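Input protein
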Amino acid sequence: MSQCCHGQCSMPTVEQMFAMVDTDKNGSISFEELAAFMESIGQCCSREQGQEMFNMVDTNKDGSIDFEEFKALMVEKAKHDSQ
């Protein structure tokens, strides 16, 4: 999922990642979209584990993950990965 330009590779931006997961392009990520994405990158988990993760990210509890919620998840992941 990296992009290469003149031999220099970079990770996708948060906006690009969000667009990859938001397959119906409605501006939010459903549980089904998140589950399909996780499976596509080899991060399979039980439906219960997936729902638990989804619920943690869906901080406003509207049943979908908007861009701000997704961005907060990516920031936390980046902090965790750098430790």
